[in-house]
């Protein structure tokens, strides 16, 4: 009973406390419109549902992006590892390639030092030598005596005649030139096959180079491809000659390089000695608007000067002098009243510093400088050093050594083949370069006269290998083994070797013609030699046949 009464009292008190009348009307939170509240609650519920869906979608997208990033990171890691492995293999391959290349070059140089070994013969001889009969000693000796010696007996007398007349002509040239404005001409120097005693093909032509220098106060400044200046690969072997004032080089004056002002005067130079205008630089045989010596201008000046000199002394001689070739301005011909003639080349050159290396304006009868980059690029010739080297080596060889005979025979065969099939890129200078390499590589006793046959084969083998590899290096450029007695400039010894066959690498038609001419010469060798050989019993004429 008390418990029931307590419950009733508690219910009454609760009802009284929660009655609306106990609270002010303005603070009431009970809305008057229940339907509107329900509608808003539904809208709110819908918006919360949409927001939930949006958040779930964003979470899903973030998870997908995270997975993609993790996957990309894994791929990048794998690619980095693969790249590292690939870079290691690439570097290792390059190192192996470089080692092989260095070994190959060393191996080639080693072969050049021993070109007569039997083991090397099989490596050098190619398909072109299979079935080629090499004439034996008796046939070669008969051929050399009948064809070579019989036609070269007058060379010494011809050299004396040409040199004597050239000296007289140059002396007259100096007299007709203006010493204050024209180039100063020096004495001529004989070079080439006539002065190295190996020319065999007629007509005999003497090659003379004539050094010249600019008038005072000018001098020549030289730039070569190996002097540190930038020269493209196709200009290797060339250089440029700049005409400068000698007093500027000596004093280091900067008056021509700095504006001194109207009221200032250089104490070293007067106004008269200021830089010459462009027209006067052209009078110094420079290319238009430059200070670089122009080979074409030099040849025009030299040809005019030679003509004037001949007009002054022509009354002293009973022959005529004329220019024999249009494309070789220095090619001269002496015509006697008897109908005989003597041809020689007089070519102006510029001496490189105090050496016997010369910048040459052009090569008579040669394709060495057929593609000169421009008329301001001059080819460097080492002909004087080549002559000296042959003379120096000849002193150490046995009596009647066969080195000159080898070059004469090979030059004759090459000339005969070219007369049959036409000229090719292969020249006598290439043949002489082969001989120079072999002279340096082989000991002196290998050049005894009885070894003519073996040395001739060596030259042919060496030349075939060079043709196959398209590499025949200039003998002096890059050769650190040049004898010190020659006094050869060290700058050219330290230069990169110059490949004389480089022009044929990209010109496949000329290269193919050169190789074909060489192979034809090998096949026709016996026939060409037997044509000029007296009859020898068959037992002595059997050639050495390479299988």
Automatic annotation (TrEMBL):
* SMART domains the UniProt entry points to: Mab-21
Where, by residue number, does the polypeptide cross the bilayer? none
Q: Does the keyword Transmembrane helix apply?
A: yes
Q: Which residues form the Mab-21-like HhH/H2TH-like domain?
A: 404-477
Cleavable signal peptide:
1-20
**Compartment(s):** Cell membrane; Nucleus outer membrane
The record's section on InterPro entries has: ITPRIP-like (IPR026250), Mab-21_HhH/H2TH-like (IPR046906), MAB21L/cGLR (IPR024810)
Biological role: Enhances Ca(2+)-mediated inhibition of inositol 1,4,5-triphosphate receptor (ITPR) Ca(2+) release.
State the name under which the record lists this protein: Inositol 1,4,5-trisphosphate receptor-interacting protein
């Amino acid at each position: 009973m008390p418990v029931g009464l307590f419950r009733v009292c508690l219910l009454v008190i609760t009802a009284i406390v929660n009655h609306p009348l106990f609270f002010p009307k303005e603070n009431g939170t009970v809305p008057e419109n229940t339907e509107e509240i329900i509608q808003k609650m539904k809208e709110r519920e819908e918006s919360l549902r949409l927001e939930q869906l949006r958040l779930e979608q964003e979470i899903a997208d973030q998870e997908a992006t995270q997975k993609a990033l993790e996957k990309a990171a894994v791929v990048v890691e794998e690619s980095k590892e693969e790249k590292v492995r690939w870079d290691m293999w690439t570097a290792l391959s390059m190192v192996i390639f470089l080692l092989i290349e260095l070994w190959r070059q060393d191996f080639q140089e080693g072969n050049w030092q021993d070109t007569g070994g039997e083991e090397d013969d099989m490596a050098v001889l190619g398909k072109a030598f299979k079935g080629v009969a090499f004439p034996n000693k008796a046939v070669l000796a008969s051929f050399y005596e009948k064809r070579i010696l019989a036609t070269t007996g007058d060379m010494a007398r011809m050299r004396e005649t040409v040199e004597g007349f050239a000296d007289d002509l140059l002396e007259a040239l100096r007299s007709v030139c203006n010493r204050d404005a024209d180039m100063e001409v020096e004495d001529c120097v004989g070079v080439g096959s006539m002065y190295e005693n190996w020319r065999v093909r007629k007509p005999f032509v003497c090659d003379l180079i004539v050094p010249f220098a600019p008038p005072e106060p000018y001098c020549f400044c030289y730039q070569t491809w190996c002097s540190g200046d930038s020269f493209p690969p196709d200009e290797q072997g060339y250089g440029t000659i700049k005409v400068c004032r000698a007093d500027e080089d000596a004093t280091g004056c900067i008056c021509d390089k700095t504006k001194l002002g109207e009221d200032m005067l250089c104490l070293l130079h007067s106004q008269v000695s200021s830089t010459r205008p462009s027209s006067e630089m052209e009078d110094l045989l420079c290319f238009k608007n430059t200070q670089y010596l122009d080979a074409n201008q030099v040849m025009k000046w030299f040809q005019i000067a030679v003509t004037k000199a001949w007009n002054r002394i022509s009354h002293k001689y009973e022959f005529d002098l004329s220019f024999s070739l249009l494309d070789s301005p220095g090619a001269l011909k002496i015509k006697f009243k008897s109908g005989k003639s003597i041809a020689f080349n007089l070519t102006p050159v510029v001496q490189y510093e105090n050496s016997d290396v010369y910048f040459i304006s052009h090569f008579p009868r040669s394709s060495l400088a057929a593609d000169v980059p421009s008329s301001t690029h001059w080819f460097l010739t080492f002909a004087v050093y080549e002559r000296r080297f042959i003379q120096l080596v000849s002193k150490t060889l046995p009596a009647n050594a066969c080195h000159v005979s080898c070059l004469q025979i090979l030059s004759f065969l090459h000339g005969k083949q070219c007369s049959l099939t036409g000229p090719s890129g292969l020249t006598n200078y290439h043949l002489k370069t082969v001989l120079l390499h072999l002279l340096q590589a082989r000991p002196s006793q290998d050049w005894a006269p009885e070894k003519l046959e073996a040395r001739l084969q060596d030259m042919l083998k060496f030349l075939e290998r060079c043709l196959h590899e398209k590499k025949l290096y200039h003998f002096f450029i890059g050769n650190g083994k040049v004898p010190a007695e020659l006094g050869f400039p060290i700058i050219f010894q330290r230069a990169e070797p110059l490949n004389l066959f480089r022009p044929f690498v990209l010109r496949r038609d000329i290269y193919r013609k050169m190789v074909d001419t060489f192979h034809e010469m090998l096949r026709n060798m016996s026939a060409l030699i037997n044509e000029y050989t007296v009859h020898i019993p068959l037992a002595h004429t059997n050639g050495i046949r390479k299988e």
